[in-house]
Amino acid sequence: MSIGRVVVLTGPSGVGKGTLLKAILSQHPEAFLSISATTRSPRPGEVDGQHYYFLSREEFQTKIAEQEFLEWAEFAGNLYGTPRSPVIEQVNLGRTVILEIELEGARQVRKTLPSARQVMLLPPSVEELERRIRERATEDEAAIARRLLQAQTEIGAAKEFDRCAINDQLDTAITALEAAIFS
Ligand code: 5GP
């Protein structure tokens, strides 16, 4: 069996990574989406062990000390990290492992796993991104402001990535992101 590979997918909060990935993964059983750990509280409908592993800051810090993360970063006041062992297991099974992570994590993976493909998903405009974050209505005003500021930084880093796709119309965006990840 051939060895798999790792694909990093980065894009500003609210750009629609989750929606597009769900559609793409249903067509690609060979792909595996890494489940991250976070200290953020679950949003309505989010399930522990399915969307994220929800940890206390203390639990997260223990895992950092035990080097259990392939990468980790602080984002908008919360810690997020990729558990290392499932990634290694799934790559060894020949699967395409997708890490849906923010910019600092993507930069770490660029150093530790330079062969990983790095993909960025962009919004059609910053105004449209703000509209989507507000429509989701899961964050307070201060958190929205932090996420928008961070979004500008992430968009500005697009040229660091191997491939970019724009989430404009749903079906064209799915095709563009699928090509960026798999082709
Ligand atoms: P959210 O709170 O909206 O679920 O995620 C906030 C940001 O954290 C998103 O940009 C998401 O891609 C990123 N993120 C999720 N999991 C990880 C992870 O394991 N590591 C890093 N570095 N970022 C992550």
Structure description:
It contains 7 helices and 9 strands; from the N terminus they run βαβββαββαβαβααβα. The protein is α/β, with parallel strands linked by helices. It has one domain: 3-Layer(aba) Sandwich (Rossmann fold). The strands form 2 sheets. It has a 5-stranded parallel β-sheet, with helices on both faces. A 4-stranded mixed β-sheet has the order 4-3-6-5. Guanosine-5'-monophosphate binds next to strand 5, strand 6 and helix 4.
* Percent of sequence in beta strands: 15-25%
The number of helical runs is: 7
CATH homologous superfamily heading: P-loop containing nucleotide triphosphate hydrolases
Output mean pLDDT: 95
Specify Rg, calculated over alpha carbons: 16 Å
Overall geometry: globular
Relative helix content = 40-55%
Secondary structure elements and pairings:
Layout: E1 5-10, H1 17-27, E2 31-33, E3 37-38, E4 53-54, H2 57-65, E5 69-75, E6 78-83, H3 84-92, E7 96-100, H4 103-112, E8 117-122, H5 126-136, H6 141-156, E9 163-166, H7 170-182
Parallel strand pairs: 1-7, 1-8, 2-7, 3-4, 8-9
Antiparallel strand pairs: 3-6, 5-6
The protein binds guanosine-5'-monophosphate.
Q: Features of this protein?
A:
Rossmann fold, 4-stranded mixed sheet, alpha/beta, 183 residues, 22% strand, binds guanosine-5'-monophosphate, single chain, 9 strands, 43% helix
Concise structural overview:
The chain is α/β, with parallel strands linked by helices and 183 residues long. It has 7 helices and 9 strands, in the order βαβββαββαβαβααβα.
